[in-house]
Amino acid sequence: MDIQVLQKTISKLLAGDKGILAMDESIASCNKRFEALGIPQTLEMRRRYRELIVTAPHLDEYISGAILFDETIHQQVTDGKLFIDVLLEKGIVPGIKVDLGTVPLAAFPSERVTEGLDGLRERLAEYYRLGARFAKWRAVITIGGDLPSSSSIYTNCHLLARYAALCQEVGLVPVVEPEVLMTGDHNLYISERFTRRTLNFLFEELYKHRVNLQGILLKPNMILPGLTSVDQSDMITIADTTVLCLLETVPAIVPGIAFLSGGQSPEQATARLNVMHKRFKHSMPWKLTYSYSRALQQPALECWKGETSNVPAAQQELVKRAALNCSANRGVYSA
Ligand code: 13P
């Protein structure tokens, strides 16, 4: 592994105030979002939607990297150019989701484990050949009752570490995504406890698997109360609890942290990122940015509705959200 190759990619991904656009929804997830808006769930509609995204004017001013899905990495815009080449021409680094989604963890009802290690070395080499320079693997940790179990946290972190080591071997930057889910009625402090435990396990596993921490990006959840919690926290508590937890668990040598949005509204995801930058501008050793899917895309998707005539307006919505998140990265966002 040549660490300089990984670092070159990372410095492009962390350039300026830019963030990463996650457009790697699986076919099922993309269809679910289409269904909610009455958009036909076909291969061609998914292609058109992704074309809208990659061709959005000025996207490259705010977005440094885009995470594709296997279906999307092979697709083309209407004039025949591959999406990946459209991104490369704009200077946006193409990435690829390489996990194969989650399945129930045997013997642990209600918990999930991410699949995709079998044949991963060969798939990573192929994605590198196609032009991808970073990868993503998402693990989910569920809170509720006596969950999460230590087994679920350990197993998911172990898999993340093995994935990360394989990525670095082939020259892809691993984006390591342990998502402690927002679903549930737990409060912020429960989320903090399990996020902390997960990140502690994760960095121990990364260390054991000889993953070079200078050559990864972490994609964690913000620390938030559960979606149905009666105990909703204010913005400053969320920002402080999140950054303090990351300061305690993520080694300073890690170059960057890019949050997932996880079910927050676009406005919340931007405003909370902004407060973190405002309050911790000079005390964070790593770069802090965003790698949102829903919080960047949802307004654009709602505007598009599957209609060609809505494409320019939908592209504006997408680029607007990206620009607002860049303002949040400077701590100067206002709603
Ligand atoms: P959300 O921002 O919608 O949580 O998606 C991020 C992501 O990449 C999930 O894997």
The number of helical runs is 12
General form: globular
Straight-line N-to-C gap? 44 Å
CATH architectural group: Alpha-Beta Barrel
Helix-strand string:
HEHHEHHEEEHEHEHEHEHEHH
- Biggest sheet: strand arrangement: 1-2-3-6-7-8-9-10
* Count of the domains: 1
Please summarize the sheet with the most strands: 8 strands, parallel
The secondary structure category is alpha/beta
| CATH topology type | TIM Barrel
CATH superfamily: Aldolase class I
Poorly predicted runs of 5 or more residues: none
Question: How big is the Rg?
Answer: 19 Å
- Approximate strand percentage: 5-15%
Which hetero compounds are present in the coordinates? 1,3-dihydroxyacetonephosphate
Task: Please state the average pLDDT score.
Answer: 98
Give the number of DSSP strands.
10
At the first level of CATH, the class is Alpha Beta
User: How helix-rich are the residues, as a percent range?
Assistant: 40-55%
What would you note in describing this structure?
The protein has 335 residues and is an alpha/beta fold. The chain has a single domain, classed as Aldolase class I (TIM Barrel), CATH 3.20.20. Helices cover 47% and strands 14% of the residues. The protein has helices spanning 3-13, 27-36, 43-54, 70-73, 83-90, 120-130, 150-170, 188-208, 235-249, 266-280, 294-304, 311-329; strands spanning 19-22, 63-68, 93-97, 102-104, 112-114, 134-141, 173-180, 217-218, 256-259, 287-290. The strands form two sheets. Strands 1-2-3-6-7-8-9-10 form an eight-stranded parallel beta sheet. Helix 6 (120-130) crosses helix 7 (150-170) and helix 8 runs parallel beside helix 9 (235-249). The longest helix has 21 residues, at 150-170. The N and C termini lie far apart (44 Å). The model has no long low-confidence stretch (mean pLDDT 98). The structure holds 1,3-dihydroxyacetonephosphate. Belongs to the class I fructose-bisphosphate aldolase family. It holds the Pfam family Glycolytic. Pathway: Carbohydrate degradation; glycolysis; D-glyceraldehyde 3-phosphate and glycerone phosphate from D-glucose: step 4/4. One of its GO terms (biological process) is glycolytic process. InterPro entries: Aldolase_TIM, FBA_I.
